[in-house]
Specification:
Length: about 180
């Protein structure tokens, strides 16, 4: 029971009242429209400032990341937790020494998401030697830069890709040695 100004309300009644307030469009609660307008304008301002700070490419990849998701049947996986605390995983499906499919996953910030997405795009379809050449600077150039305090995200993505490639090479070497 909830007691408010000598009224006793059970949780079901409270939920009905809150639902009514949340869905009220006119009448008793005219502030709803003003609040919705305020929130919409605030969100638009935040997005515009983010585009100015990070650029259109980074903003686009943050909002709509490509290649994001875990892969259950990966040939190899690289996983690193960076000094900022963000963890990135890169999943590779490899056939004939080419990256047939690549995905990434991160629990990190928008810059980590954008960098993981770009690393996956740059490495997808490439031969292993070519993918091994992708570094933090390559990712930064493709994204058209990041603010200095976010540059470590590009390095995290590149290093995670390198770990996934290294893990594949070790797995392949063990397999070849076991056949001898």
């Amino acid at each position: 029971m909830l007691f408010w100004k000598n009224f006793a309300l059970d949780m079901n009644s409270v939920m009905k009242i809150l639902n009514f307030i949340a869905t009220a469009e006119v009448g008793i609660f005219p502030m709803k429209d003003a609040m919705d307008d305020f929130v919409d304008k605030l969100q638009e301002q935040i997005f515009e400032e983010s585009k100015e700070t990070y650029g259109e490419e980074v903003f686009s990849r943050w909002q709509n990341p490509r290649f994001m998701g875990k892969m259950t049947d990966a040939s190899s996986v690289g996983r690193i937790t960076g000094p900022c605390g963000d963890t990135m995983e890169i999943y590779l499906r490899i056939r004939n020494d080419h990256i047939e499919e690549i995905n990434f996953f991160t629990d990190g910030c928008g810059s980590s998401v954008a960098c993981g997405s770009m690393a996956a795009e740059l490495a997808g379809g490439k031969g292993l030697d070519e993918a091994a050449q992708i570094g933090g600077e390559t990712i930064l150039e493709a994204l058209k830069g990041l603010p200095e305090e976010e540059v470590h995200c590009a390095k995290l993505a590149a290093e995670t890709l390198q770990v996934a490639l290294h893990e594949w090479m070790l797995k392949k070497l063990k397999l070849e040695n076991s056949k001898e």
